[in-house]
Target: D-3-phosphoglycerate dehydrogenase
Amino acid sequence: MFKYKCLNPIAKVGLDLFSDEYERVEEFAEADAVLVRSASVHDLELPDTLEAIARAGAGVNNIPLDKCAEKGIVVFNTPGANANGVKELVIAGMLLAARDVIGGINWVQKEKENPDITKATEKAKKAFAGNEIEGKTLGIIGLGAIGVKVANAATHLGMNVLGYDPYISVDAAWNLSRSIKHIKKVEDIYSECDYITIHVPLTDGTRQMINQDAIDMMKDDVVVLNFSRDTLVDEDAMLSALENGKVKRYVTDFPNPKVANAKGVLVIPHLGASTEESEDNCAVMAVKELVDYMENGNINNSVNYPSCNMGVCSSVSRVAINHRNVKNMLGQFTNMLAEADVNITNMVNKSKGDYAYTLLDLETGVNKEVIDKLRAVDGVLKVRVIKK
Ligand SMILES: NC(=O)c1ccc[n+]([C@@H]2O[C@H](COP(=O)([O-])OP(=O)(O)OC[C@H]3O[C@@H](n4cnc5c(N)ncnc54)[C@H](O)[C@@H]3O)[C@@H](O)[C@H]2O)c1
Ligand SMILES: O=C(O)CC[C@@H](O)C(=O)O
Model:
């Protein structure tokens, strides 16, 4: 029986994929597997029983990835599963920045008891006139699952689209419309675009990437959209730029006390992925990742361990070893098994950065003594007997 804990509400269509072998628990400390959306895991004590965390979403800045890796806890995310939901809200954000629909709707609410509202409308509406986005230039920083979808959609709205991503994946490049101009220097995005939208993960390298220097390079009246994470933007610099008229609108999906009531900022309460479709997609992908890891030891879409897949376990026994990516680990594992007279029928060893993972299919079962010996190897972080 496996125990799982949900740190946030997770869509039922995903949870329904857990078989009777899985029990939902209320205590984090009891869980073998955890599902999470935006709740922070940083301050939680990671139990020794915990094998895996699945982030039903893309951003993993709410999870201590290295701390988890050190404890042999594999962290998954669900790449692309909510990208369409975010794309649609980015397009809505651009339109709301271009046209004062919100000001207009607020005016109607204020005037809702006015019997002459029809006549008053025709006088008042000029205050809410705006611009069209067709023909304007959109710059996209980060051409991953979301950036590519925004780019392609914007071309269909008649925008000129410039894209910047020095680490673009082959898949993303294949999916990108040919009409998108590939930009090599991010400075060109800043200087050429009427709308700029950022779709990069929050890391130490991207934090505050939209800073005073970046804003200084931007065109007057630029609209900046941030559906990625608030700390990607130096919001003090952004608020000054709104104040002095350099930036026309800042559209953000991340309310905080600084922006919530600031003039010129359109603040959305983190709704990018809040669609039934995205929530379902993320939950289904996250649960499938956890089940395959718990039952077969396979790793798909991990952000702190390598991908590793040996399919459904059909051998007598399977053992998984999470370990550091250092030399002679495999040699020690195979020697120990040979000494215990255990034949390895299939084996995969993969690494990602400082961490590695080895899956071993065995012709016979292994006893506790051998498992304890494997656990004692310097650099081994976790040993799991997936099938006895
Ligand atoms: N608002 C929401 O509800 C919501 C929903 C999903 C994702 N997000 C945020 O959006 C981010 C992106 O999501 P995604 O699904 O597109 O992720 P993704 O991993 O598919 O794409 C991120 C892209 O950013 C690129 N990149 C990384 N560093 C860069 C840099 N310095 N300059 C330019 N490009 C860089 C990567 O190469 C990659 O192509 C997530 O990390 C998350 O923080 C927010
Ligand atoms: O779960 C959510 O609602 C937000 C998800 C989003 O921020 C992500 O990074 O995928």
Remarks:
- The pocket of (2R)-2-hydroxypentanedioic acid (ligand 2) is lined by residues 37-38, 57-59, 82, 273-274 (CB under 6 Å).
- The mean pLDDT is 97.
- The first strand starts at residue 2 and ends at 6.
- The first helix runs from residue 12 to 15.
